[in-house]
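WARN retry 2 of 3 for item q-0093 after timeout on previous attempt; input resubmitted unchanged.
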Amino acid sequence: MAIPRPVLLATATATAALMLSPLPATAAPGADRADGDRSSHPVRDGGTTDSRVASPALPSAGAAALSSVGTTSPGLRKDGGYPRRNVLPTLPENPADKAIKLGLAPYHALAPRLNALQELGDRVSVEVTGRSAGGHDLYLVTVTAPESAKEAAEQERMRTRIEDSPASAAKDKKIKESYKTPVFINNNIHGNEWEGTDAALKLIEELAKAKDSRTKKLLSTSRIILNVTANPDGRIAGTRANGNGIDLNRDFITASQPEARAIRQIAVDKQPAVMLDLHGYVNGTLIEPTTPPHGENYEYDLFLKNSYANALGMEEAVNDLGYTAEKDGVQPPVIPFRDQEEGWDDWPPIFTPQYMAFQGTVASHTIEIPMRVNNNDYNNLPVEELRRRSKINTDVAGAAMRATLDFALDNRKTLIADQIETFRRGVAGEKQRVISEETVPGVPGIGPEDIYTTDFPRAYVIPAGGGQRSAPAAARLVDHLIANDVKVEQARKSFTLAGRSYPAGSYVVDMEQAKRGIANVILDEGRDISADVSSMYDISGWSLGLLWGANVTKVQRGGLNFSGREVNAASPVGSVARSGDLKLRLDDPKEFAAVNSLLAQGVQVRRTADGAAIVPSSARKKAEILADRYGVVFTSTKDNGVAALRRTTVAAAVNSGELFALREMGFEVLPVSTATANAGFDWSKADALYVSTGLSHKGLNETARAALGAFLAGGAPVVALGSGGAAFNAEAALLDATPVRGNGNANGVVRVLNTPGPVTGGTQPHSFVYSPIWYTALGKGVRTEQSYGGGNPLVSGHWRANEDGTGGPQNAAGQAAIVSGTSAAGAPVTLFGTEPLFRDHPKGSFAQVGRALLNRLP
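OK item q-0093 returned
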């Protein structure tokens, strides 16, 4: 029996007036948040690959203004049918909203407009799917012909059958004739790529008002689902990232952010067959499908056939707008699969359209609208020119949307049949189809460079009990799989698979299931694609099975003989020993959150020689609360520890992802930079320093340098990471170690060897690199904490040597990836050449940074 899934949050409050025009441009332009990059990776979506500047979360507009609690208006459906209109709360006008300058809809205008659109008839419904990092409601619109509660329930029954019983669904005449095609349009996921939102509002109004027979047929055979703005924080502030400083279109394998989790839930609940993701700015308009390499876990023959056909229709629609290079500065559209050799790939599952393919979408596209209006252009161009460009962009986005709706209407039966076939292959455990011009008719130019497939294993097992380094890591991974709609079973009894025994309570992922693609994306080690293309658009390796701290085993072949039950959540794992002092391994972010909570409560905690925490028996009650809250395990111990742990506030010159990770581990963080240090940063409030970007020792004035020197002389731990950290170490003369930079375009999962001790001892044998570094010529007292594995340490990703033969993985083999020692001033220093906090991917490596920050000298 299928386990019920969570549903989207719906809201209803007071009515609002019609507001179908943006407010006048009354706000002065503001500076965009800086986006930097410490590597030479190519840029996608008109931005940077990895922000190196931390920005605080945007302030909430206020609890009252953003409240999602209210009453349903009279006459609106409460029975699950459509329309299921909800009256959204209105917000105060915000003259600083960056959309206003462009003549586009500011965020505060969206609720009134959506309320008014719902009143235009019986086709438009609005729901709230959650809140952004900055506390703003996320609006989801469904446009479809009215459905009774019974009809809506029948649509859900068919949707569920398509996923759970695809072989029989393929023969179901009712599905063929009456299942409504779900079409999903996602807008404004990068906050300073605005116009998809405005095109969507226009489209909703057109669909609500249209009386022609084709629109009526479209709405009777489709549900058009529109995420109006996926990133309201960024839309308001004019930033690419959300209020946490995170690029949401890099977040779909980890779903660290609430906005990404909301989109993931839309994908699971609505099961789109077709989707668009509106971006900017690439001139001419860029329309997926992409160049190789292609994601090896897709049913790519089905995906390419439909995506290419829809791309041709969108190209024609954009050209039909009549914009030209000579008259308007608008170049003709580009379809990368057809027009480019490499550089715009769909390999990683971190982008919205690529993630959607694993949830049953068979035509999925990034659309890059053409005319740049963000960043320097936003600040420097006249308002009149910006609005001219924004109008063009809105038109182009609208043309792509309308062409896609035409495609969905004209190809309804094929799209649903191909979605069913995607799931059927998974359930049947069939091999993928190799693409060619014969197997994918209508797509010219397919060659061997486009062929990427994988050999799906029979199952994965996440062992219980003693088979785990980290109980919270295993539970987190199981819950993450389930959140991605992967079916997970838990064994009732001990069992044996492929000659290996597993205890009761272990989790099994049977790979003969509809969502095998996303299961494999999450759990598989991945693949080294260094030889396949010269460079990659973004990351090339990401295995959560290797990087999240849990033990995962792969069962390649054979039957699955065990007694189990499907679960909708991991079993609770937190526990506290009944007697004696307590030991808490510090291998996981949740364990750090627990120990930092104890330290904040004044508990006297000590650390062991191998980096664990010793908690006195007098704190057992507090430990019990934290064990329940975080799912961590406190065992009994007689170890007295070697040094006291202290509550640690970290002065951090880091990027937004690292800032987010530090706070996830429970550290208090004070952002610092060269500018803030020169302005008089109060080092007395900090207990440790973490530097990866933005703090240049040689850039400090004399007073700031003296203040930092006094801080370091007090024995505060220093963590320095990447090229920015290496430069800081050299300028401040902390540790005698020479950094060697690998290929700046390299990234992926690597094998590592950990040295027993307080920093890396007992932590996972894999890490993540992004522009890797290693250290040589280690001076007296400098210790190797971790080294790269021998031979070729790259497990999955892309890492080539430079043209002169240097900088490759073989050059890094056996070299020091992490080193530590004591500076001349007496500060414990740890230098990282890996990326242990990168975008939430290597959670199992977070502990290495956490331990280093707590590693004060005895």
